[in-house]
Amino acid sequence: MKVILDEDYELVQQSQAGIKKAFEQLFVKYHKKVFNKCYSMLSIREDAEDAAQEVFFNVHKKINTFKNESKFSTWLYQITINHCLNIIKKPGINGPMPPEIGDDRQSFNPVRDCVRSKLAQLEEIHRSVIALVHFGEMSYAEAAQVLECKVGTIRSRVNRAMEKLEPILRECLE
User: Fold this and answer.
1) DSSP character string of 95-154
2) Is the pTM of this model over 0.70?
3) Distance from the first to the final alpha carbon of the chain
4) pLDDT per position in the chain (174 positions), as tens?
């Protein structure tokens, strides 16, 4: 077993020892990134906020299962992606949907909302890699770790997703 000593190692160790302030620091450091990942997958601000809170609740409960065999951020993002996928798979939820015009949860932006609705049309395997690589700004290697597949698979999925998105995204710019 190889232990990864990244910049979060000490905070994780302290969190595992029950030091609340250490976990609060991890929360502050990663909350915005986790929220952005949730938002890129769920598309509705309130759902993303709820999901991000649930992710951190789960991480707090499971922090002692983290063995530092990967970067903490990779482990956290994997939990985030899996949580959002579980939300999307719930009965009655058909994946991300664009907010309605006049939705008071966020300001209306026709191009952004069009792009989000087009992303929602992708299969989940393609939507996930776009969320990680393009919105989450992860490298292909990091995305491969989170999705537990090979880097070549990530490259292939990104290429296929972009091929599918290109013609339908043109509609958003017309």
Assistant:
1) S--PPPTT-TTS---HHHHHHHHHHTTS-HHHHHHHIIIIIS---HHHHHHHHTS-HHHH
2) no
3) 53
4) 566 677 899 999 999 999 999 999 999 999 999 998 888 778 788 999 999 999 999 999 999 999 888 889 989 988 998 898 788 766 554 444 434 333 444 455 677 677 777 777 788 788 878 877 876 677 898 888 878 889 999 999 999 988 988 888 888 777
Q: Which domains, ranges and CATH numbers included, belong to the chain? A: 9-173 (1.10.1740.10)
Residue 17: CA count within 13 A, CB half-sphere: 9
The two tokens of residue 142 are 């990091």
CA 80, CA 86: separation in Å to the nearest integer? 10
Whole-angstrom Cα distance, residue 92 to residue 10? 42
- Cα 167 to Cα 79, 115, 121: the distances in Å are 32, 12, 12
User: What gap in Å lies between CA 21 and CA 87, rounded to an integer?
Assistant: 29
